Amino acid sequence: MTNFPIEKIRADFPILAEKIRNKPLVYLDNAASCQKPQAVIDSLVHVYTHEYANIHRGVHTLSVRATDKYEGAREKVKDFINAANHKEIIFVRGATEAINLVAQTYGKANIKAGDEIVISAMEHHSNIVPWQMLCEQTGAVLKVAPINHAGELIYSEFEALLNTKTKLVAIAHMSNALGTINPVKRIIAAAHAKNIPVLLDGAQAIPHIAVDVQALDCDFYVFSGHKLYAPSGIGVLYGKQALLEAMPAYQGGGDMIKTVTFDKSTYAGLPHKFEAGTPSIADTIALGAAIDYLQAIGMEAVAAYEAELLAYATEQAKQIKGLRIIGEAADKGAILSFVLDKIHPHDIGTMLDSLGIAIRAGHHCAMPVMDFYGVPATARASFAMYNTREEIDVLMQGIKSLIEVFG
Predict the structure, then answer these.
(1) What DSSP string runs through 44-75?
(2) pLDDT at 2
(3) Are 103 and 130 in contact (CB under 8 A)?
(4) Which SS3 state, helix, strand or coil, does residue 108 take?
(5) Residue 113: which H helix or E strand, with range?
(6) φ, ψ for residue 217 (rounded to 5)?
(7) CA-based, 20 to 30 A from 404: which of 213, 235, 343, 390?
């Protein structure tokens, strides 16, 4: 994209000027966590310097300022994903906590012995283990929709799993290990035709593509701030208001209550019912700053630029003898997972680090995906809006160099 402001964007991320082992940093571990723009860093500093106090309960000036900024961030999230109401935005620590919250509230209230929960074979552990735990607690059964060798959901087999016993579908919007973007609108429509609610794990998708929860009609959508150029320790659970209102409270404590006596407590309304205790105030406000930053660029522009990066990286990778790409879905986000003949992914990661290149090597919290492809791990280069073709060239040259070293 000739008009994409890549140089300006790169200048906004101070860590990109770092040297690693006397080499310029090439940061390609964005699927694990993105770096932070100066606007987000400045937001954190400003909060702690000028307006930090506990929120919601204070009447003094600092508390009012912090409360306004915190609730302002909720409005920004609402607009960013086009939720119908700010009450549908619950702040949590991350996507993992959001999924556990749904499993232990909605799940326990609505799923019983013999019921079925459907996930896919490409899920992150965070969208597997909470449902396994719920199944152990309730006697429900976890069903897994298979994928093909390209890393795509076999849709016909997914649809065949839906029946009167299915009480929930929980599926990744985008795979963190393969980059696959699932046909989530089609999935949701098929599930809703049988009155089955759908949770989307959007942790990987949210920094790369525009998300409209009303257009998707998903019942729950979860994501983490740290993959959205915001701080770690903050995330979002979106849920349709009627579902959230019917769900029991997840944790007890301050700020989620209406009244407390030793005989009985009553709970606050949405969204505070699910936000017990002092939250991560500055990080939540900084999440709002990250959203402001992204919206100024435009998610459509980000998606188009990253698609070009992925296409270029894929083309270059396919020219390297002995390199096998893991995951070649037709609809795919900016992730290039690969293996090299006779070289363990951990050695790939270590050798590339000596050249200043940061990639991820391992199972990516997706062990079933590794089992499916018959590999112990993959090397994963994952791209963000601040990466460049020149960095991809550095990566490819580094891969060629280590192939030569290993013979």
Answers:
(1) HHHIIIII----SS--SHHHHHHHHHHHHHHH
(2) 65
(3) yes
(4) helix
(5) none
(6) 70, 25
(7) 390
The token pair at 396 is 């490819």
CA-CA distance, 365 to 383, in Å (whole number)? 18
What is the pLDDT, as a whole number, of residue 146? Answer: 98
The beta-strand segments (E) located in 81-130 are 89-92, 116-120
The Cα–Cα gap between 30 and 335 comes to 9
CA–CA distance, 45 with 50 (Å, rounded to integer)? 8
pLDDT confidence of residue 118:
98
Q: What's the pLDDT at 1?
A: 57
Range of the domain at 310: 6-30+299-406
pLDDT, tens digit (0-9, with 9 covering 90-100), for 16-52 = 999 999 999 999 999 999 999 999 999 999 999 999 9
Could you report the per-residue pLDDT of 246-303, keeping only the tens digit for each?
Answer: 999 999 999 999 999 999 999 999 999 999 999 999 999 999 999 999 999 999 999 9
Domain boundary among 296, 312, 341: 296
CATH number, domain containing residue 10: 3.90.1150.10
Where the chain has pLDDT below 50, the residues are: none
Pairing of strands 198-201, 220-224: parallel
Gyration radius of the chain over CA positions: 22
Helix (H, G, I), strand (E, B) or coil at 404: helix
Residues 292 and 328 in one domain: no
Amino acid letter for position 86: H
User: Does some domain include residue 184?
Assistant: yes
Q: Are residues 274 and 223 in the same domain?
A: yes
Phi, psi of 29 (to 5 degrees): -120, 40
Structure tokens of 218?
């998903």
Last residue of a domain, one of 296, 314, 345: 296
**Whether residue 152 is found in the same domain as residue 187:** yes
169 and 292 fall within a common domain? yes
- The answer to whether residue 208 is domain-embedded is yes
Same domain, 323 and 210: no
Task: State if pTM tops 0.85.
Answer: yes
Residue 36 within any structural domain of the chain: no
Q: 241 with 265: CB under 8 angstroms?
A: no
Same domain (yes/no): 269, 324: no
* 197 prior amide bond cis, ω within 30: no
**Of 34, 135, 218, 365, which is the active-site residue?**
365
- Predicted local distance difference test score (pLDDT) of residue 57: 84
